[in-house]
Queue: 4 jobs
Job 1
Amino acid sequence: MNAGVEGTALKTAAKEWGAARGVRIQVVELPYANLFEKEQLDLSSRTGAYDVMMLDDPWFPRMSENGGLAALPRDPDADFIPACLDVCRKPYRTGKYFALPYVGNAQLFFYRTDLFAKYHLTPPKTWDEVLAAAKTIGQGEKMYGYVMRAAAGNAVVADFMPLLWAFGGDVLDAGGKPACDSPAAVDALRFMLELGKYSPPGYAGFNADEVSAHLLQATAAMSINWPAWIAAMDDPAKSKVVGKIGFSPMPSGREPGVGELGSWLIAVSAASRHTADAFDFLYWATDAAQMKEAALRGNPPTRRSVFQAPDLIAKFRAFPAQLASLESARPRPRTPEWNEIENSFGIYLSQANAGAMDPAAAMRAASDAISKIVEGHEAATHP
Amino acid sequence: MKPRRIPEGFWWVFPSIAVLLALSVYPLIYAVKLSLADRRNFTRLVSDRLFLTAGAQTIVLTLAALVLEFALGLALAVLIDSLARGRAFFRTALLIPMLLPPVVAAVAWRLIYNPQFGVLNGTLRRIGVNTAHLTWTSGEASALASVILVDVWEWTPFLFLLLSAGLQSIPPEPMEAARVDGASAWQIFRDVTIPLLMPTILLALLLRAMDLVRIFDQIFILTQGGPGTATETVSLYIYRTAFRFSNFGYAAAMSFVLLAATMLFSRGLLRVMRSR
C-alpha cells in the first residue's frame, strides 16, 4: 500500500481486521514512486507475494491486464459513487469488477474566500472568471493570483486535464487514437499559459508540494488541488490561511467543469493463496461502517452515505464540494499505456509552460508521440 | 586411468561463483535475450527523439561536470597540499558533501533551489538581487546547469581526495631538482607535478566519468528529468521505460547502448591520457 495519508487508514483497518478474524497480516508500505513498479512486477511474475494491493486508479487498466487481478465474487452495492465504481471494471464501466474503491479523490478548486469577498468577486463558476479573478487579486495584493504545477509528468497533466475537458478536448478519442492536437486542446493549452502569467515564476517545475506551499503561505490565491491537502489548509501549525480557503468543484468552460478522478482502489492478486480471506477483507474495509472510520482518519470516502453523514459534514466542511466533484469526476483515459502517454504528454505540456514551445506545436508533437505509443502497443499485442 | 578430480579449492570458491552466476551473469544473459526478443528495440532507438535528447544531455552533463570537478578538485588539492598548517582539518571538512547520501543531498538542494521559499533566492533577495527570474531547477534554460552544480558540489571532494593522495605520493626530489635548475612554480607544476600525477588523474577521471554517465538519484529527486526534457538523462529514461511503462526489452536495449558508450568513452579517455 501507499506510504501516506491514504495508506495509514488502510493499515489501521488491516490490523483491526486481522485481530478480529485471528489472521496474521503483514503490511508492506511503499512510497508512491515505487508502489506501481513493485505491484506490477509481482502481478506479471505471479508470485502472489501480496494478497491485497492498494492501487491508484490509472494503473488499473495495466494491472488488470492478462488476468493479474482476481474478479470480485459479488458486485458492490449501490451506495458507492458510480464514478468510483466504473474504474474498478474491466472493460471500463461495463465489465466485471476486479477492485473496490477505497479512497474517493477528485480534484477540487481551492480559492481564498476572504479575498474574493474583498474584491466583490463571486466564487468562480467558469475558467474565464478564474482568469479575471487571478488578474484582479494579482494586481490588488502582493501575491500571485493563481498557482499551478507544470512539472513534466503526472503534475502538469493533472492540472491540464480539467482545462482540456472544460474546453471540450481530450487526450484520446473514442477509438483510442490521440486527439490532443484538436483546436479545442490547443485553446485549452493557450488558456493554461494565460493563467500561467499570474502564477509564480518557475511553476513549470512545480509539483503538488510547491502549489500547496504557496496557498499555505498566502502567496497565491487559487489553485486546483487534491482533497488530501484540505486538512493542511485549516491546520494552524502549517497554514497562514486557516478558514480562508473555500473549496468548490471544477469551474466550467465550453463544457461543464470536470475534475480528474484519482481514486485509490483495493484489489486481490490473482496469484494470491488466501483469496477467501483477501476478499473478506476487501468487502469489510469498504463497508459503510469501516469507511466512516477511515474518513475520521482523514480518508475521503467513496460512499454517498458516508459523505452525507451529518456528523462527518460538521467535521469536514469540504465534504459537500468533494461529493459534488466526485459525482462528476472523470478518470484518466482507460488504457494500459497511460503511464507512457502521460509521460510524453507531460513533457510537451511542461515545455509549453516553460515557454520553450508554442502551444500548437507542443500539442502536435504530443499527438505524434502518443500515436507512436498507441501503435507500438497495438503492434506488441497483435503482431 | 585416473578419474579427473575436481581441485580441492573449487568448493571453497563455489559459493561465490554460484552467487555471481545467479545475480550477475544470468541477469545479463537474460537482458541480452530480452533486448533481442524484438528487433525493433534497436531500430526504435535511432528514431526515438526522447532517447537522443537524453543521450545528448547525458554527454553534456558528464563533460561539464567532469571538467569542473577536475579543475576544482585539482586546484583544491594543490592549494591544501601547499598549506603549512591545518591540512587535516580542510581535508576532512571538504569531504562532508561526499559523505551525505546522494538522495539526502538532492532533497536538501531541492529546498535550497525553491524559487520562492529556498535559501538561495532568499539570500540573494537579502543582498538586493532581483530573483524574479532565477528559477534554477524549474527553468528550462537553467535546470541542467543547476543539476550540474549539485553534482559538482557533491563530487568535487572525491576528485580532491584522490588527487590529494596522488600529490602526497609524489617524491619531493624531482621538484627540488627542477627548482635547483631554476624552473618557475608554474613550470614545475606543468612539467613535473602533472606528469607524475597522471596515473592518479587518469584513474580519478575514469571513475568519475563512469559514475556520471549513469547519474540518476540527484536528477530523479531534483527535477524528474524536467522541465520538459531539460534534464532527462539516459538512465532516467531507462528507468521509466522499464518500471513505469513495463517495456523491459526496450529498456534493456538502451542499457546496452549506454554500456557500449561508457566503454568507448573510457577507452577514449585512456588512450588520450596514455598518448601524452
Job 2
Amino acid sequence: MSNADKFLEGIKAVTPLTLGVASFAIAYGLLARKAGLSLFSLTLMSLSVFAGAAQFLTISMLISGTPFILILFTTFVVNSRYLLMSASLGSYTRKWGTGWQILLSFLLSDESYALTISYFMKNEPNKYYQLGVSLGLYIKWAIFTLIGGLLGSFLGGPQTWGLDFALPATFIVIILPMITTWRHVTVCLATAVFSTIGLVFLPTKWYIPFATVLGTIVGGVLEFWKRK
Amino acid sequence: METEIVGLIIGIAALTFFTRFAFAVVLKKVKISEKWNRWIVYIPIAVFTTIIVPSLLAPNEEIELSIQNEYLIAGIVTLLIAYKTKNLAGTVIIGISIILLLRALLGF
C-alpha cells in the first residue's frame, strides 16, 4: 500500500465516529457562543487546543467567572492523560523525526490514540495512517465547531433556551460512561464531598484545584493499594 | 475582553501541546504499567465532578439544598436518565427540557 492509501485508510477509520464528534463539536460551538465567545475565539480554540473536555470545561469556568490561572490549571490537569498516551506512542513516533513528532503530537486526541494504538498492535506502524486518523478528526472537530458557533449566533439568550443547564448536563453525559467500577463511584462521591467543602470554606473558585487534586489522589490510593 | 480570551486560549493550547509532546520525546522505551493506565481514568472523573457538583448545588454562588433549586432537581433526573438510557444526545435534550418545564410550570 502506498502512503496515500494508508492516509486514506486512516481518514476512513474515523467515519464511524463522525456522529459522536459532530454532536459534541456542535454543542461546544453553540454553548461557547452563548457564553459570550466570539466566533473567531471559539474556532481558534478548536484549532489550537483541539481537546473537547478541556474546551467544555473552559467555557463553563468562563461563565462562572473563574480566574484564568485556575482555568489553565484545570485544563492542564484534565489533559495530563495525554502525557501517558503520548509516552506510549512515543516509541513509534520517535523514529519518524522531529517534524512528524511535533505534528502528530499536536493532533493527538483520545479517539486518535485509541484507533492508532490498536492499529499499530496489529499492523506495521505507519505515520501516514496516524496522520489520516488525526487529521480526519481534527477537520471534523473544526467544521462542526463552526456550525455550532453559527447556530449559537442565531439563538436567543442562554436562560430562555435552558442552555445554562446544557453544560452540567453534557458533563454528566461525558463522565457517566467512564464510571465502570465501584472505585470510580468512590472517587466521584469523594470528589463531590471535597468540592462542597471547598465551596464553603475556600475563597471563590479554589475548590477546583482542591477537589480535583484530592479526588485524583483518592483514585491513586484505591488503585495502587489494592491487592493484585 | 476578546484579547484576554485569545491570550487564555493560546495559553491553554501551549499547555495542551506540552502534555501531548513532552513524554513522547523525553521518555525512551517507556512501558506504562496497567495501574497507571487505570489511574488516568480518575483524573477526568475528579475534574468533571468538581465542576458539576457546585454548578448544581450552588448555581448562584451559595449552596441551595432545596426543592426550589431547579438545577439540582434537573441534574439528578438527568443523571438517572443518562444511567438508564445510555443515550448521550437524547439525555442532554431531555435534561434541558426538564429544566425548561420546571421553570414554566413551577415558576422557579
Job 3
Amino acid sequence: MTEDALVWFLVAVAVIAIAAVGILSRRNKAVAKRKAEIEAELNQQLSSADEQIATLSRELQQFKDEHAERIRQAEEAAEESTKAVLKGSARFLQSLAAEQQTLLEAIQRKYGGHSVLGDLLEVSHANAQMSRKAQGIAVVCGAPLGRRNRPASVYDVVRSAMGQIRNFERVAIMQQTGFALKASAVSPVALAVAELLDNAASFSQQNAPIEVTFQRVQKNLCIIIDDAGVGMSDEDRQQATALLSGDYRPRLSQLGNQPKWGFPVIALLAQQYGFRVDVTGVSRYGGVRAVVLLPEELWTMEETAPPTETVQTGHVSGPVPPSDSAPRTAHGLPRRGARQVPVASVPDRDTTTAASPEPEEAGQAARRSLGAFQRGTLSGRKLTVAPSEGADDA
Amino acid sequence: MTDEPEPGLELTSALVPLFVITNGRSLPPEHAYERTTLVSASQDASAEARTLSPEARQVLELVTGGFLSVAEVAAHTHLPLGIVRILLAQLEERGLIAARKPIPRAEHVDRDVLNAVLDGLRARFGA
C-alpha cells in the first residue's frame, strides 16, 4: 500500500517536473529570441551613430583645414603687405644712404686738407653702417641690391664689407691675392661678408682679433672668417645651418623685437647669386669659422694692377715742368734725389726775362720747396749771362 | 626670386671708403706732415711693404729713393691730403719712412730796397 502511494507520488513528481521543464524551455526560447531582436536593433543604432560621428569628424576636419588655410592666407597677406611697406621704406633709405655716401666722399675730397676730415670720416662710417642695415632689410623684403658696375679685387670687397660694421679695426685681412670678383658679385658678397663680420664682432670680446683669409679650393674661392668668440651651441649651429641652407625661412614677425637680419640676409643673397655660406666650422681660436664659398662663375684672376689710373702726371705737376734728365720712379714720376740737376725754372727766369722784376714770381717761388729754390739760385749764380746781376755785383 | 624686373640702384661711391683705407685712425696733429714736409722711405722699407695696404704701399713706393713733399704725394695718389697724412703717420710709426720738416721760408728781399741801402752806403763811405 505504501509502495503504491510512493510510486504514484514519484510519478506525479516526474510529470510535474517534465511540465515545468517544458514551460521553462519555452520561456527561455522566447527570451533568447527577444534578446536577439534587441541586440540587432541596438547594433543598427550603434552603426548609424558611428556613421554620424564619422561624417561629423570629417566635417570638423574640413572646417579645421579651411580655418588653417584662411589663417595661413591671412598671415601671408599680412607678411606680404608688411614686406611691401618695409621694402618701400628700405629702398628709400637705401638710395638715400647711397646718395649720402657719394656726397660725403665729395666733401671728404673737398676738405681733404682740413682738420674737419677726421669728423667726416666718422660720419661716413656711421652712414655705411646704416646703409648696410637698409640693404639687408631691402633684400629680405625682396628688393634688389644696389649694384656695382666694375669688378673688384676680393681684398677690396672685404675691405668694403669692413667699412659696414662698427669695430672694423679688429678685422685683419691676412693676405692680398690676385683674385677678383666679377662686377655682379661685388655688392652681394660685400654685404654677406659684412653680415658675417658683424656676427664675428658681436659674439666675441671687444679686442679679440677677427682674421680674414682667402683660399682657392679646386674651382672655388673661399673667403674664410675666423673669430675668437664663444662659438655656437649645437642648437644655434643647427638653426644657422637650416637658415643658411634655405630650408627654414622665418617670417618677418619671427625675427624678434631686436630683429636678427644677418642669417636670413646671407641666405637670400647666397641663393640669389649662387654662392654658399657655412658657419659650422671652428676657428683656430675656438670661435666660429665662417666660410663663403664662391663658385668659379663669380670670380676671376685679377688682370691688371688696379691703381693704374693714378699714374697720370699731367695735371699734378706744378709750374715747374720736370726736366728730361731727372731720374724717374717706376711709375714715371720725377724722382727727387740729393744732388740733382737744377730745376729748370730758375735759369729760365734769368735768361729770358732778365731785367723785369716780375711780381708773380714771388708767388711761384713760394710754391716750391726751399731745396729747389736753393739749388736754383746756386745754378743762377753760375750763369755768365746775367747783366742785371753783374751791375749789382760791381 | 631670381628674376629681378626692377633695376637695382647703382652704387657710385667708392667701393673702399676712405676711413677703411686709414683703418679708422685719426688725423696726426696739425703741425706734423705739413704740405711741404719732405718724406723719404727708409733703407729697409721695401721688405715690409708686402704687408701694407695697397694705398700705403703706393705712398711708400712714391717716396722710395728720394724726397717728396706731402702735397706731392697726395697729388700723385689722388687721395685727400688728410688721408695721406694719416698713412704717413702710420708708416713712420712702423719706421718705414723718415720725415723732414720744411725749412722755414726765407724772406723775399726787395731789390730796390737793397739798391737804396747800397746807394746810401756808397754815398756815406764812398765807393
Job 4
Amino acid sequence: MADQLLVSTRKGLFSARRKGGSWELEAVSFLGDNVTLSMIDPRDGAWYAALDHGHFGAKLHRSRDRGATWQEVGVPAYPTPPEGHLEKDFLGREIPWRLIRFWSLAPGLASQPGLLWAGTVPGGLFWSEDCGDSWHLVEALWHMPERRKWAGGGADAPGIHSICVDPRDGNRVVVAVSSGGVWHTSDLGQTWSAHTEGMRADYAPPELVSAPESQDPHRMVQCHGAPDSWWIQHHNGIFRSTDDAMSWTEIVDVKPSVFGFPVVVHPKDPDTAWFIPAIKDERRIPAEGQVVVNRTRDGGRTFETLRRGLPQAWAYDLIYRHALDLDASGECLAFGSTTGSVWISENQGDDWSTLAEHLPPVHAVCFA
Amino acid sequence: MPSVAFTRNLQRHVACPPCVVAGGTVRESLEAAFGLYPQVRSYVLDEHGALRFHMAVYVDGVPIADRRGLSDPVPDSGEIYVMQALSGG
C-alpha cells in the first residue's frame, strides 16, 4: 500500500505520509505558490511539481530527495507562429501559441528511462527524454488540421489533461482533450487518429453532437492489468471502452449524477472504477450537500454510493479531474477538494478518514 | 550605462539583484541582464521573446511601447525597472 501522498494546491505542494497506520501531513514545498500538478515517477522515485506563477509563467521543478530540495527544470516552448498568424478557435477566440499551463504529466514505460510526456494548455503535447530538462513538441498533433476544432473546456483554451501510455507498447499513446476528443498514436506521435464512437455531446449543436472534436472528456484512465479496458468521465456522463479505446459505451442511470470530473480504475480489475459525482454541469456541487464517491465493481452495470467518513451535510466540495488518485495496490484512494479538504480510504472507498480540512484549494493528488 | 532592477516578487523565485549593463535598447539591456541571471529570462519573457502579458517594463518611469520587440531606446544612464503589471484586486 502507498505510504506517500502529494497534494497540489493553489498555495503550495503538501506531502503526507502514512505513519503507524494513519496519514499525516508532514511537509510543504513552494508555500504561497500555485502548484497546479505533481507527479511521482515510479521508475526512479523523482517528484515533479508544475507551478503556475501567473505573472511569471508556468514552471516545472524536480526533486530527487522526496521534496527536501528542488531543481527548476525545462518547460515546453510552443513554436513561433508564422508572421501575421493569428489562430482562433471555432468560436473566434484567440488561441495563443505559448505555454499557459501544464495540465498533465506522465512517465514513459520502464523500458523508456527518462521519457516524460506533458500535456498543456493550449492543446500541446510535449515529450522529454531527459527527465524534463528539455522538451520537444509533438509536431504532428499540433499541426493537425483537426486540432483547430478543439475549444476551451476546463480552461479558456483547449488542453490535454490525460495521457495514457500503453503498458504493452510505449509507442502507443492516447490523449484526451478538453474539449477536443480522444486521440491515438501508435508510432510515438508521428500520426494521430480520433476514436470517439459512442460518445455524445448534448451541449453541442445537433449536427456536431457526435463529432470527435465536440467531445469533452474530463478525465480518461486505462486499466494497466487489462489495457483494453478504459473509462472516461465525460462532460456528458460516464463512458467505458472494452476494445482498447476504439469505441465507447455510455453508462446511464447513475445516482446521484453521472456528472463529475475525476475517474480512477483498479490497476488489475477493469470492472472496478470510482467517480465523484456533482449535480450537473451548471451546478457543480455535490447533490444534497453530501460528498460521496461512486464505485462500480461490475463494469458500470451497478454503482455503490460510498459516504462513510465523508461530510453529509452543508458540504459543497468540488473535486477537480486530477484530484482523485488510487495507489498501485488498488486499495488506497485519496481525493482533495476545492474547499481544501483531503480524504483517504484504505479499503477501496468503504471508509474514509480526513487528512486535512483547511488546505488551499486542491488541484491534484498523487500517491507514491 | 543603463541599470536594471527587478521586482522583489521575482527575486523570491530567482536571484536577480540590480545590475548595470551595456545596451542601447530595452532588448539589448535585458539580454545583458539575462547574461548575468540566465534563469530570469523565462520569468520575464515568453518563449517567443515577448514580454509576458502580466509583466511591465519601465524606462525612466515610462512604460515601454514595444512589448514584443523591446525596441524602445534606453539613454546611457537610463533606469530600467521590471515589475508585475497589476492584475486582479
